[in-house]
Amino acid sequence: MDASWWRTMTRIEGWIRRVTRSARGGAIALGFAIALSGCGPVGVADGTHGHRADTPMAVIAPPAVTPVATTVVVVENFTFTPPVITVPVGATVTFTNQDIEQHTVTTRDKTFDSGVVANGEAYTYTFPQTGTYDYICVIHPEVVGRVLVSAP
């Protein structure tokens, strides 16, 4: 499937989540979900967005930029800012969603996976060992970032 199809399906899923907050909207969304249940690849309806543990998840590398020493990352306008950070082992990084859309913060190997983070919510992760942690938003795979963890 092409990227535009995936973006459309994730936007529809976001709409369904917003609409299901009311009883009437829940009935509408349920009907819509049933109608779409056979329309695409497995994963959209079950929240995995087509990424199964037995299939590799593509990770787009973050831009080549100078890492920033910080423990705060914001996702806004479909961008993790700063895109590359550096922290010492044991640091806790807070990822805050200031976008209107829901996002995730997920490494390819699932070292950490925030689940869905709604607007105004945050996810924290403490980095226990040195290494390079490339992460993406599973809902919007073009939203990428990197954490470089070094010895204190």
General description of the model:
By secondary structure, the chain is α/β, with parallel strands linked by helices. It has two domains: 1-52; 68-150, Sandwich (Immunoglobulin-like), CATH 2.60.40. 20% of the residues lie in helices and 26% in strands. The protein is built from two helices and nine strands; from the N terminus they run ααβββββββββ. It has helices at residues 3-19, 23-36, and strands spanning 68-69, 72-75, 80-81, 84-88, 92-97, 106-107, 122-126, 131-136, 144-150. The strands form two sheets. A five-stranded mixed β-sheet has the order 1-4-9-8-6, with no helix packed on it. A hairpin with a 4-residue loop joins β2 and β3 (80-81). The radius of gyration is 17 Å and the shape is elongated. Residues 36-56 have low confidence and may be disordered.
